[in-house]
Design a protein that fits this description.
The model has no long low-confidence stretch (mean pLDDT 93). Strand 1 and strand 2 form a beta hairpin. The protein has helices at 3-15, 18-24, 29-43, 59-84, 99-104, 106-116, 129-137, 184-187, 200-211, 225-233, 275-287; strands at residues 48-49, 56-57, 91-97, 120-126, 143-147, 156-170, 192-193, 238-242, 251-252, 259-268. The protein is an alpha/beta fold and 288 residues long.
C-alpha cells in the first residue's frame, strides 16, 4: 500500500475537496484523483463517494481511515527516528496556539526559540482550543497550546501543563464594583460576558451557577478574551478572565469562589515529536 496514495486519501477526506487537497499536496487535481483511484484499485473497493458535490466516505473508506492514519504515523515515526540521529535542531515546526496563549505566552517562547535555534522554520496557526483539537486529529500541526479539558480525547498526550488562575471582573463603574462581598446571586442579576458554550471556562462558570440554582445571563459570547476584556471594561457586564489580563480598566470582584483553568501543550499519542518540537516544549516548561 503506497504511502503517497494513503496521504492523498487522507488529505481529500480532511479538506473535503479534491481541488484543495491537490493544492495542499502541490499536485494537480487529475494527479490526486489518479492516486486515489490507484488505492481503490489496489483495495478492490471504492473509498470515497463521488456521486454528489460533497466528499463522503463509503463504508470501506470509513473503515480504512483510522488504519491509514496509523500507517502514516508509523512512516512519520520511522523518518523521525532516522533524523534524530543527526542531532540537528532545524527544519519546519508547525504549531497551533489558542488566541490567549498566542498573545500572552508564545512571544517569549518564540523569541528564545529563534535565538537558540535560528534554523527552525515556524508555521503558526491561531484558533480556539476546540478547533485546535480537530486540526490536530488531521495532523496539521505537531503541537497545540490550548486550554485542557477533563473530557479530552485519549488520542492526545499532554506534554506540558500549567494552571491559569482566573478572577471575576467588572468595570470600576459597574454597579457590582460597589459591593463589598458580591456573591453569585448578585452576579446573576447582570449580564455575563463569557466564552462560548463548550469551552472549559464556560463549563466551569455554568456549573457554579447551576449548582447554586441561579440563572446565567449570557451576552454576546465570544472566544476572544481580549474582546471580552474590552466589553467588561466599558461596563457591558461582568466576566471571568485570567489574572494576568487584569489591569486598571477592570476591578476584581471578591467573589467567594476560586476559578482556574489548565493550559498546556498537546501532541498526538503515538506520534513522535521532532527535535524542534521538543526544544519548544523545553522552553515552554521553563518559561510558563
Amino acid at each position: 500500500m503506497d504511502s503517497n496514495s494513503l496521504k492523498a486519501f487522507l488529505t481529500i477526506v480532511d479538506q473535503e475537496s479534491f481541488s484543495e487537497a491537490a493544492e495542499l499536496l502541490h499536485l494537480t487535481q487529475p494527479a490526486i484523483s489518479k492516486r486515489l483511484a490507484a488505492l481503490e484499485n489496489q483495495l478492490g473497493t471504492k473509498l470515497i463517494d463521488r456521486s454528489n458535490r460533497q466528499i463522503r466516505l463509503t463504508d470501506a473508506g470509513a473503515r480504512l481511515l483510522p488504519h491509514a492514519r496509523r500507517i502514516l504515523d508509523e512512516v512519520h515515526n520511522a523518518r523521525q527516528a532516522l533524523s534524530d540521529r543527526e542531532g540537528a535542531i532545524s527544519g519546519p515546526l508547525s504549531v497551533i496556539a489558542s488566541h490567549h496563549i498566542g498573545l500572552h505566552h508564545l512571544p517569549a517562547w518564540l523569541r528564545r526559540l529563534n535565538r537558540d535555534y535560528p534554523e527552525v522554520s515556524l508555521e503558526l496557526q491561531f484558533m480556539d482550543s476546540e478547533s485546535a483539537f480537530g486540526q490536530m486529529r488531521k495532523r496539521t500541526a505537531e503541537l497545540a497550546f490550548v486550554t485542557l479539558s477533563e473530557s479530552m480525547d485519549q488520542a492526545f498526550e499532554v506534554h506540558v501543563r500549567w494552571e491559569d488562575t482566573m478572577a471575576f471582573v467588572v468595570s470600576p463603574e459597574h454597579p457590582l464594583a460597589s459591593l463589598d462581598k458580591p456573591g453569585l446571586e448578585d452576579l446573576s442579576r447582570y449580564d455575563a460576558l463569557l466564552p462560548e458554550a463548550g469551552t472549559a471556562t464556560y463549563r466551569t462558570i455554568s456549573r457554579l451557577f447551576l449548582d447554586a440554582g441561579l440563572p446565567l445571563k449570557i451576552q454576546m459570547p465570544t472566544n476572544y478574551l481580549e474582546t471580552i476584556k474590552m466589553m467588561a471594561s466599558v461596563g457591558l457586564g461582568w466576566s471571568v478572565l485570567p489574572v494576568s489580563m487584569v489591569d486598571d480598566t477592570l476591578k476584581v470582584l471578591p467573589v467567594p469562589h476560586s476559578v482556574s483553568r489548565i493550559l498546556g501543550a498537546v501532541g498526538l499519542r503515538g506520534r513522535s515529536l521532532s527535535p524542534q518540537a521538543r526544544a519548544l516544549l523545553d522552553i515552554a516548561a521553563e518559561l510558563k
